Amino acid sequence: MYTSTKRWMKRNRTNFAIGFGVIGAGYVVGQYALNKFSEMRERMNNDRIARENLRRRFNQNQEDCSFTVLALLPTAVDDMLDAFPVEDITRELQQQRTDRGGARGVGGTELTPSEFSSPSASGTGEDGKSVISAQTDGFLHTSQLGGSISEAPSSGEILRGKKTKAQLWTDLKINSITRAFTLIYTLALLTIFTRVQLNLLGRASYVSSVISMAIPQRRDSTISLENYEEGQSRNATNFETHRNFLAFSWWVLHRGWRELRTVVEAAVKETFGSLSPREELTFAKLSELIIETRKKIEGESEEIRRNQKWLSYILPPVEQEIYVLHESGVLPRDSSRPSNSPSPSTSDPGIEIIEASQFTAPGSPPAKTQEPTVSPSLRHLLDEASDIIDSPQTTHTTTLLLDALFSQLVDISVKTQAFKSLIPSPETPFPRIQELHPDETETPKAKLATILAVLTRQAHAIIGSDPNVYMQAMDGVRELEALSAVIYSSNFGLGDSSSSPPHGLQEQLDVAKETAAAENDNDENTKPEPIAPQSIPGGRVWNIFDSVWARVAGS
User: Distances in Å between the alpha carbon of 382 and those of 181, 249, 313?
Assistant: First the structure.
């Protein structure tokens, strides 16, 4: 039995060898396939996590932008209320009406917002004139002023140096329209700049988090005090650089809108200067006047508007950058120096100090000992922000934001409050057949004074409404989110050869891996942890946003 089995095994040993070889090869191939499948599944899972992480960071960043704009806007509005004394002019008109003791209308009557916001669109009263004042929480409301606007001034008024009623109405008209339009432009530019700022910094934060995850963790328990201090110093420098970069919002909030006001006021005077506050306008005529005003501000043709440069209203010239940092409170200001002069000393890591000679030759003028300059990292952020703001995509997005804001102001607010007969009430029952009288078929009109009253109220609603309908109107512009996505996802895999530190993500990852490998050379048991390719935004994660602008702009 044993001999026969041995002979059978010997005769079939070739078949056994082939069989075992096939089984072994099948096992190896199967294990390889399982490993590849597991690796692919893990890669897909990591890719999904990276996508969700990037999307979550991006969405949170856009919410932060909206809250930041709402927090910064009152700073500019407070200055605008002082620069455009609409309420003071209204009180002066009211005082003149009270002094005359006119029989029609009672001067100084304080009305509720609902009473003031419902003037007759047809203007049936002979002396009806809505005063352009609509305050909530202490904002004065006046009803109507009688008498002719073009009345000749009395000798007593001339002697007292007071403005005539016609002059006050002209000032009221120009200031009301200019203030509302300047607020619209300031809100749009502040939104654009805030999106650029926070998305640039959000991108840097995301890149830093990816780099920190990519650096292999050391397995030993030794602590390097030198590396710790170096990391702390680097973090402090980044924090100060980001803080300095955010401080440049001071320019648009305190200087940019004032420069913009000059342009807006000139356009408003040219368009609305010849109109009387008692003149009745149709909604189509009002829209035509506003479009004409926007053309004078933004450009007559589409080509001019496409090349419109808003950078000077958003960022200061290079020679005034240190001045902005002083005025915003980032850099301390020496009391012995004028307000527009840089401080001689600073400990800000985002600012470099250039040392000058402490000794001068006899009779020569004293030399400055220290001159603060913008650091290379802050300069890189400012230059990148300037390039983005001057880009055609940003200019196009700004125009769309202005379209949305003016649509909210004119097509919704003014139309529903000044031209009420254009909006039928859903609660009013209408018969199926109704005879139309000739007066009812005429195009509804509203007096310019009524329109000015609505514009005055909307100037306060831009920052005081809850929810803020103007912010919601801008959030509805899809190109704004697309522009933010382009900024947030740009420069992930590109290095910057103009600066000494590596700005490209792949370059920074290479440096991080080389540093970690050098630290772990003496530890044989320590192996660098592999970097998942899906964690690097230069891979498939880039595809989340790489074509979003084309998709949104083309839809």
Answer: 28, 12, 14
